[in-house]
Design brief:
2 domains; Aldehyde Dehydrogenase, Chain A, domain 2; single chain; 14 helices; binds nicotinamide-adenine-dinucleotide; 40% helix; alpha/beta; aldehyde dehydrogenase (NAD+) activity; globular; seven-stranded mixed β-sheet; six-stranded mixed β-sheet; 18 strands; 441 residues; Ald_DH_C; Aldehyde Dehydrogenase, Chain A, domain 1
Length: 441
C-alpha cells in the first residue's frame, strides 16, 4: 500500500503552527484549566502549556536527524549490499487522553505522532469539557481534518471509536480502561502504547535529609491536588523519623498553601463529585496528621496526610489520585522493599537517601516505569528520558526522541548491487554446504 508521507519540512511547519496557536490562545487555555480543575496559571504553564512548548522546540530542533534513514553495517556474507533503517509513519493514530492534565496529555503525544508523519484522531477526556473545547478550537485552526481530527464524547462514543481500525493506538488513562483498549486493538492487530497508573511508592531511608524529602514530596504529591499519575502515592519512612517527617510536611504545606488551603489560589480542586466521594471514603479520621478539611460543593479536599498507615488499610488497595498521602512507618528497609515488590509494578518510584550507593542499588533492583533519587516527578522534565510504565502501569513510552520512535515504524531496507551475483545461495546446493559454513559460523 502506498501512503503519502509529509516531508520533514512540512512536519516542522505543522508543529510550529501548533506552537504559535497555543501561545496565542494561552489565556483561553488558562481559563479552561481553571474552570475544569481550579488550576493556577503557574501550574498550567509548568505542567501543560510550557511543557508542550518545550517539547515542540526540542522535537523541531532534532527532527531532521531523527527522521533521516540510518545506515547500519552489513555482514560480509551479504557483500556488496548496504542496509538502512527508515523511520516511517504508521498512518492513522488514535490518541486518547485522561482528564488530569487534559491539555498536555493530548498535545504531547500528538507532537510525537505528527513529527513521525502520522495523521491523528484525538480523543480528549469528557471530564474536562472546557479544555476539550479549547483543544477543538486549536486543532481546527491548526489542521485540516485529514491531518488531525478531534472526536469528543464519553464512554459510548469511545467504544464506537475503538471499533474502527487505526494503525496505532496511544492511550493514557486507567489500568482498567487500558485493558478495554488493548482488547479492542487486538481485533485489528493494532499496536498500542498504554500509559497507565497505579500506586507509586516513595521510600525515605535512615540517611535521608528529612526536611528536604518532606518539601519535595509535598510538592510532588499535592501538585494538581494529587491528581497526577506519577505523584507519590504513599510514603515509607523509618519509624523513628515518622514524627519529624510529619512535622516537616506540615511546615512546608503551610508555607505552600497557607493556614487555610481552601483560600489558596494555588491549590486545585477535585475533578468531580464522584472522585470527591471516592477520596472521602479513604479518609481515616483518627489517623489524619495534617489537613482533612473538605467541602463537597467546592470539590475541595485540603492537602491531607495520614500517619501510621499499614499495608492492610483500604487506602493501600488502589491508586489514590487525590490530595491524601498515607505514611507507612517501617522498621526494616528490606522488608519494606519486599512489600513494595509484591505489588503491581509502579509507574514511578522515588527514593530519598544521602547514601547514593544504596539509593542506586535500590533503583537497580526494583521494577518500575521511571523515577528519581531525592526528588519527585522531575524525571518527566527531561526530554531525554523516555516516560512510560511496566506491567500494570503500562507498556511503551514517549517524550522527546522516544515519542518520535514510538510513532515510527522502523522499516528495514537492504540495497543489493547488480554488478555481482554470488552463486552460493542458489540450488543445486550439492557441494556448497562447506562454503556456506565458512560464511555462517
Ligand atoms: P480513564 O481510563 O477513566 O479515561 C481515559 C480515557 O478513556 C478517556 O478519554 C475516557 O473517555 C475513556 N474511557 C473511559 N472509560 C471507558 C470505557 N469503559 N471504554 C472506553 N473508553 C473509556 O482515566 P481517567 O480517570 O481519565 O484518568 C485517570 C487515570 O489515568 C489514572 O489511573 C492515572 O494514573 C492515569 N494516568 C496515567 C498517565 C500516564 O502518563 N501514565 C497520565 C495521566 C493519568
Amino acid at each position: 500500500m502506498k501512503i503519502s508521507i509529509p516531508s520533514i519540512e512540512e512536519r516542522k511547519l505543522k508543529l510550529e503552527r501548533l506552537r504559535k496557536i497555543i501561545l496565542r490562545k494561552e489565556v483561553l487555555i488558562n481559563k479552561a484549566l481553571m474552570d475544569d480543575l481550579g488550576k493556577s496559571h503557574f501550574e498550567t504553564y509548568l505542567t501543560e502549556v510550557g511543557f508542550v512548548i518545550e517539547e515542540i522546540n526540542f522535537v523541531v530542533k532534532n527532527l531532521e536527524s531523527w527522521a533521516k534513514p540510518k545506515k547500519v553495517s552489513t555482514p560480509m556474507n551479504l557483500f556488496p549490499a548496504s542496509s538502512y533503517i527508515h523511520p516511517s509513519p504508521y498512518g492513522e493514530v488514535l490518541i486518547m487522553s485522561p482528564w488530569n492534565y487534559p491539555f498536555q496529555l493530548c498535545i504531547a503525544p500528538m507532537i510525537g505522532a505528527l513529527a513521525a508523519g502520522n495523521r491523528v484522531v484525538l480523543k480528549p477526556s469528557e471530564l474536562a469539557p472546557n479544555t476539550a473545547k479549547v483543544l477543538r478550537e486549536i486543532i481546527e485552526e491548526a489542521y485540516k481534518p485529514n491531518e488531525v481530527r478531534i472526536v469528543e464524547g464519553g464512554v459510548a462514543e469511545t467504544q464506537e471509536l475503538l471499533k474502527q481500525k487505526f494503525d496505532y493506538i496511544f492511550f493514557t488513562g486507567s489500568t482498567a480502561v487500558g485493558k478495554i483498549v488493548m482488547k479492542a486493538a487486538a481485533e485489528h492487530l493494532t499496536p498500542v502504547t498504554l500509559e497507565l497508573g497505579g500506586k507509586s511508592p516513595c521510600i525515605i531511608d535512615e540517611t535521608a535529609d528529612i526536611d528536604l524529602a518532606a518539601k519535595r514530596i509535598a510538592w510532588g504529591k499535592f501538585l494538581n491536588a494529587g491528581q497526577t499519575c506519577v505523584a507519590p502515592d504513599y510514603v515509607l519512612v523509618p519509624k523513628k523519623y515518622q514524627h519529624e517527617f510529619l512535622e516537616r510536611l506540615n511546615f512546608h504545606l503551610k508555607n505552600f498553601y497557607g493556614d487555610s488551603p481552601a483560600g489558596s489560589p494555588d491549590f486545585p480542586r477535585i475533578i468531580n463529585e464522584k472522585h470527591f466521594d471516592r477520596l472521602e471514603e479513604l479518609l481515616i479520621p483518627e489517623k489524619i496528621a495534617v489537613g482533612g478539611e473538605k467541602s463537597r460543593v467546592n470539590k475541595f479536599i485540603s492537602p491531607t496526610v495520614m500517619k501510621d498507615i499499614s499495608w492492610s488499610d483500604k487506602i493501600m488497595e488502589d491508586e489514590i489520585f487525590g490530595p491524601i498521602l498515607p505514611v507507612l512507618p517501617y522498621e526494616d528497609l528490606n522488608e519494606a522493599l519486599e512489600e513494595v515488590a509484591k505489588r503491581s509494578r509502579p509507574l514511578a518510584f522515588y527514593v530519598f537517601s544521602e547514601d547514593s550507593k544504596k539509593a542506586k542499588a535500590i533503583m537497580r533492583e526494583m521494577s518500575f516505569g521511571g523515577g528519581c533519587i531525592n526528588d519527585t516527578l522531575m524525571h518527566l522534565a527531561n526530554p531525554n528520558l523516555p516516560f512510560g510504565g511496566i506491567g500494570g502501569s503500562g507498556m511503551g513510552s514517549y517524550h522527546g526522541k522516544k515519542s518520535f520512535e514510538t510513532f515510527s515504524h522502523m522499516k528495514s531496507v537492504l540495497i543489493q548491487k547488480t554488478k555481482v551475483d554470488i552463486p552460493l545461495r542458489y540450488p543445486p546446493y550439492n557441494g556448497k554446504l562447506s562454503w556456506l559454513k565458512l560464511f555462517l559460523r
